[in-house]
Amino acid sequence: MDLTLRLLRHGYDAVAADRAARGVAPDAGTHASRLAGRRAVVVRSEPGARFFYDESAAERKGVVPPPLAWLLFGRGALHGLDGDAHRDRKRTMVDVLSADGLGPLVTDVGSELGSAVATWPGREVSVHPALVSVYGRAVLRWAGLPLTDERADTIAHRLSQQVDGFGFAGPAYARGWASRLWWNRYATRLAADIRAGRSQVPADAPAARVVGGIDADDRTAGVELGNILRPTVAVAWLGSFAAMRLAGRPDWRERLADPGEELARMAFAQEVRRTTPFAPVLAARATRPATIDGVRVRRGDRLVLDIMGIDHDPARWEAPGEFRPERFLDHAPGAFDLVPQGGGHPSGHRCPGESLTLRVLEATLRVLAGVPYEVVDPSVDLTRMPTTPRDGLRVRVPAGARPRSAHASSPGSA
C-alpha cells in the first residue's frame, strides 16, 4: 500500500503501519516506501534528518500536491520555494516574527484568555474553538488590522478551517477550501489597499511589513500574510492538548500557575509539542543520490521525514510514550531530535513561528493552570489529521469557581 493511503487510513500511526507492513525492523532509522505513486525513502535517524534538511540534497518545490499545499499554505507560498528565493522571503517572515516584537502578542493572548475563562464557571466549554477566538483576536490586533471582535472571530475561524481541512477529512476539506478561497479574495484586496496607502494599517505594523517586504504581486503578498496569521490560530490544536495534559497532571498545576515558573511552563509546552505533533510527516525530493542507514536514495526520490518516529524515538527519548515535561527542564533538544515543526537550522525550512508557538502555549498554560476544570472526554482519534481531543476538548468548570487572574504578563512575555 502507498504511504499516501496509509496516511488517510492510519493518520498519525501511518509510518509505523507502513514499517510493519513492509517487514522493517521497528528500530530501523530509514526504510524504502512509496508516496503518491513514487519511490520514497522514509527517514527518522539523525543522518536521515540531516539529509532531509540539507539544501544541497533536498528540495521542496512541487513536492506537496496542490490540493494540499495550496489549501494550507497558498499558491506561491514560501513553503514551496528553495534556494535564494526561499531565503530572501523567509528573511522578511523571520524579521516580523522576531522575539523582540512578540511580547505584545503573547501578553494579549494571556489577557484575552483570562477574560474568556472568567465566563466559564458553571458551564461546559469546548476549549479548541475558544482558543481559536483568543489566538485569532490577539494575532490580528498584533498585525495591526483594525477589526471589531466579531469580525476578528470570523477571520480567525476561517483561518482555522483551512488548517482543519488539510487532512482530507471529508466535509472539513470542503470547508477548508471555501475558507481558502475567501481568504485569497480578502487578503489580496487588503494587500493592495496597504500598498496603495488606502488602509488604516500602520506602516510599521507586522501586516504592512509583510506585505511591503515581499517582492511579489498582491495575491502572493496576501498569501504570505495568511502564513503569518494562520499558524498562530493553529496553535489552538496544541493548546487543546496542553489543556488536556494539564488536567491529567494535577501535580504540575500549582507550579504552572506561579508567575515565576516560566521555564516550567516552557518545559510543559515542549512535551506537549513532542507528544502531539501537528502533522505526522513532512516531504521533500532528493536532488542527489546517497545512502542513508544502508538504504539507497536516488535522485528524484521522495523523502519523508517521520515526525512521529523522531519525536517518539527511544534512542532519543527515555520512555517516549510517557508524558514527562520534566525532561525539558534541564535539556535542550538538538536540531534534529525534536521536530514537531520541522528541524535543522532556523535559516532553512524549520518553521519560523516555533518560538511564537512556545510562548503562546506558555501564556495559555499560565492561565489554564488557575482554572479548576475537569475534562468531559479525553479520547483522541489518531486517524484524523489534524486531531484534537474529542469535541475540541470539552471541559466542565464548577459553578462558583473563581479562576485566578492571569492578565499580568509573565517575566518573559513583555
UniProtKB/TrEMBL annotation:
It holds the Pfam family p450. InterPro entries: Cyt_P450 (IPR001128), Cyt_P450_E_grp-I (IPR002401), Cyt_P450_sf (IPR036396). Its cofactor is heme. Keywords: Heme, Iron, Metal-binding, Monooxygenase, Oxidoreductase. Belongs to the cytochrome P450 family. This is Cytochrome P450.
